[in-house]
Structures are given as structure tokens and as C-alpha cells.
Amino acid sequence: MDPSSSSSSSSSSSSSSPPSEGPLPWWGVAGALVLLAAALSPRLRFRLRIGSYCLLCLLASALTAPACLLWNRGRTVRNMTIIKNVVRTFKYIYGLRFELKGLEHFEIEGPCVIISNHQSILDMIGLMEILPERCVQIAKRELMYMGSVGLIMYLGGVIFINRKSTSNAKSVMADVGQAMMSENVKVWIYPEGTRNGSGDLLPFKKGAFHLAIQTQVPVVPVVYSSFTSFYNPKKHLFTSGKIRVEVLPPVPTEGLTASDVDELTDRCYTAMRETLFRISERPAEVNGGGPSVSH
Ligand SMILES: CCCCCCCC/C=C\CCCCCCCC(=O)SCCNC(=O)CCNC(=O)[C@H](O)C(C)(C)COP(=O)(O)OP(=O)(O)OC[C@H]1O[C@@H](n2cnc3c(N)ncnc32)[C@H](O)[C@@H]1OP(=O)(O)O
Ligand SMILES: CCCCCCCCCCCCCCCC(=O)OC[C@@H](O)COP(=O)(O)O
């Protein structure tokens, strides 16, 4: 070791005060314990990760709402563009990669009804990844009360329904039909009516298909591959992963009537289920399609 450096190091050590050796601050200890616990416990790791997602949604909503109000002065589908661009950054935070196919099927002049499978609260990231311009979603009205998330949904033009009351939902959907045509808006609906992480499809509710036939606009099915390889609340699994998204060709409804709803529902259900199994690399069931409408 060079003697000059030793003398300089001894002089520097005499001039600089010794590092403070006091105890770690309380927050340092707490943080270290949480990280240690998370490393040891999958359940805690899952809860921290999904909790951070919810917190991110709340925070991002609270920060984006003023921008929507300033930019577009209130509730309008134009706010969806702002919301979409914010939410699309979330995939980098959670390591979600998308493989997209069939986006050309969205190039429809005018309104249409978009339907897709619904697996979890992460779906919103996949929704915003491909959301076409001037497109709003149908949501359960409970979401309106989720703090800033409810506010941003309201500002983005999301339509809230009481899914526990068919009559209320039907009348709201009828109003949606009129608004679609007068304001040239697309509507995105989750026909399963609830989240479903099974890797299969639940029977479809019929509202989306009634709406499409009442307005004579095409139905555009969208399928997201199963999340089960990287997201499974029952197994406390939430890691990064790849999601295949396939937009299927539009299904026309010109000339159809309410009596064709069941057939239209079945047709979309079968096409989406086959696609879901294919892009999720799951063998199709031997007995063919499952139930397509709610019984
Ligand atoms: C900046 C940072 C931001 C971060 C924060 C995030 C911001 C994100 C912003 C924005 C993204 C927002 C994302 C939101 C996502 C939300 C997801 C959800 O909430 S999913 C749950 C709600 N959605 C549904 O439920 C739709 C599907 N349901 C339907 O369409 C149903 O049909 C419904 C609700 C209309 C009625 O449901 P029924 O349970 O009664 O079931 P049925 O079998 O469909 O209908 C019963 C009878 O009524 C007839 N019917 C139904 N709809 C009809 C209609 N419109 N006209 C006439 N008859 C109808 C049917 O034909 C059936 O009759 P016969 O069995 O055929 O005799
Ligand atoms: C002030 C009160 C704040 C309450 C905590 C707010 C937590 C915010 C979490 C926001 C996560 C983003 C939600 C995206 C929309 C969504 O995907 O909702 C799922 C619904 O389809 C669930 O329907 P269901 O399966 O029937 O329960």
C-alpha cells in the first residue's frame, strides 16, 4: 500500500468525524422488516403488490382529474385519451407485456359495441392498451364510489349501471344506445358481468347484444389470454407476464332483431372461447362450447 496514501488517509481520518453509529431510524427498521417479511411470505408480497396497484390507481386518478377538468372542462369521452395515456404506463411498473393482433378490426367508422373477457382489476391496463378513440365502458355503479377512481371514471364518460336491477340496467342501456348514435361513441362491455379468473368464460349476459341490435352497430369481440400464469389471487401470485390480445372481426347486426339476440350471443361466445383457449395455449375441451347465456 503506498505510504503517502496511508498518511493522507490518517490525516483525513483525524479531520473527518467518525460515521455516526446510532440506531437505524424507526422507518428504516419498519421498511426493512416489511421487505424481509415480503421476501419470506408470498401472501404478503401479493398483498403489497396489489395494494400498490390500487394505491397507484387512486393517486394517478387524483392527479389526472384536475387535468381532465382543466383540459376538457368536465365529463366527456375526450378525457379517455388522457386516462388511457396515463394507465398505459402502468404496464412498465408491473412488467406486463402485450402481444396485439387484429387491431385493424377497430377501424370502424362510427359506433360499435366492443365486448371482452374480464379477469381482474388488472384488465383496465389491457383495456387502455388498445382502447380506440371515443370509447366508453359500462361499469357496475359501485365503482363510482371508489374515491378518485370513481371520479376519473365519471369524467371519462364511463356509464354506470345497477347490474342487480335488470329493469334499471335495460333503461340505462337504452339511453346508451341513443347517446352512441348521437355522439358517435363506441361502448366497451364485459358480457360476463363480473371478474372471472378461471381461464374459461362465464355465460354471457345479453345486454351488449341487445344494445348492438337495437342500434344496428357491429359487435367487435376482444379476447385477452388467461392471466393464470402470472396472476392468481388464490395462490397469492402476481408477477410480471405476457398477455396476448386478439381483436376478432366485427360481427354485423344489420337486419337482426331482438329474436336474434341468443344466436348473436352464442356466436360471439363460441368465437371468443375458442380464441381464449388458443391464445392461452390451453387445449380446447373435447365437449366443445360451454353455456353461452346466463340461465
Ligand atoms: C388516470 C388513472 C386511472 C386509474 C383508475 C382507473 C380508471 C379507469 C377508467 C375507465 C375504465 C373503466 C373500466 C370499468 C370496468 C368495469 C367492469 C364492470 O363493472 S363489469 C360489471 C358491469 N357490467 C355488466 O354487467 C355488463 C354485462 N351485463 C349486461 O349486459 C346485462 O345484460 C344487464 C346488466 C344489462 C342485465 O343483466 P341480467 O343479470 O339481468 O342478465 P341478462 O340475462 O343479460 O338479462 C336478463 C333478461 O333481460 C333481457 N335484457 C338484457 N338486457 C336487455 C336490453 N338492453 N334490452 C332488452 N332486454 C334486455 C335479456 O334478454 C334477459 O331476458 P331473456 O332471458 O332473454 O328472456
Ligand atoms: C375512498 C374509497 C377508496 C376505495 C379503494 C379504491 C381502490 C381502487 C382500486 C382501483 C382498481 C381499478 C379498477 C378498475 C375497474 C375494474 O376492473 O373493476 C372491477 C370490477 O369489474 C369488479 O366487478 P366484480 O368482479 O363483479 O366485483
Automatic annotation (TrEMBL):
Residues 1-21 are annotated as: Disordered. GO terms for biological process: phosphatidic acid biosynthetic process. Residues 1-19 have a biased composition (Low complexity). One of its GO terms (molecular function) is 1-acylglycerol-3-phosphate O-acyltransferase activity. Its EC number is 2.3.1.51. GO terms for cellular component: endoplasmic reticulum; membrane. Keywords: Acyltransferase, Lipid biosynthesis, Lipid metabolism, Membrane, Phospholipid biosynthesis, Phospholipid metabolism, Transferase, Transmembrane, Transmembrane helix. The chain crosses the membrane at residues 24-41, 53-72, 143-161. Pfam families: Acyltransferase. The keyword Electron transport does not apply. Residues 112-227 form the Phospholipid/glycerol acyltransferase domain. It catalyses: 1-eicosanoyl-sn-glycero-3-phosphate + (9Z)-octadecenoyl-CoA = 1-eicosanoyl-2-(9Z)-octadecenoyl-sn-glycero-3-phosphate + CoA; a 1-acyl-sn-glycero-3-phosphate + an acyl-CoA = a 1,2-diacyl-sn-glycero-3-phosphate + CoA; 1-(9Z,12Z,15Z)-octadecatrienoyl-sn-glycero-3-phosphate + (9Z)-octadecenoyl-CoA = 1-(9Z,12Z,15Z)-octadecatrienoyl-2-(9Z)-octadecenoyl-sn-glycero-3-phosphate + CoA; 1-(6Z,9Z,12Z-octadecatrienoyl)-sn-glycero-3-phosphate + (9Z)-octadecenoyl-CoA = (6Z,9Z,12Z)-octadecatrienoyl-2-(9Z)-octadecenoyl-sn-glycero-3-phosphate + CoA. It is an enzyme of class 2 (transferase). Pathway: Phospholipid metabolism; CDP-diacylglycerol biosynthesis; CDP-diacylglycerol from sn-glycerol 3-phosphate: step 2/3. The keyword Transmembrane helix applies. Converts 1-acyl-sn-glycerol-3-phosphate (lysophosphatidic acid or LPA) into 1,2-diacyl-sn-glycerol-3-phosphate (phosphatidic acid or PA) by incorporating an acyl moiety at the sn-2 position of the glycerol backbone. The HXXXXD motif is essential for acyltransferase activity and may constitute the binding site for the phosphate moiety of the glycerol-3-phosphate. Belongs to the 1-acyl-sn-glycerol-3-phosphate acyltransferase family. This is 1-acyl-sn-glycerol-3-phosphate acyltransferase. It comes from Pogona vitticeps (central bearded dragon). The gene is AGPAT2.
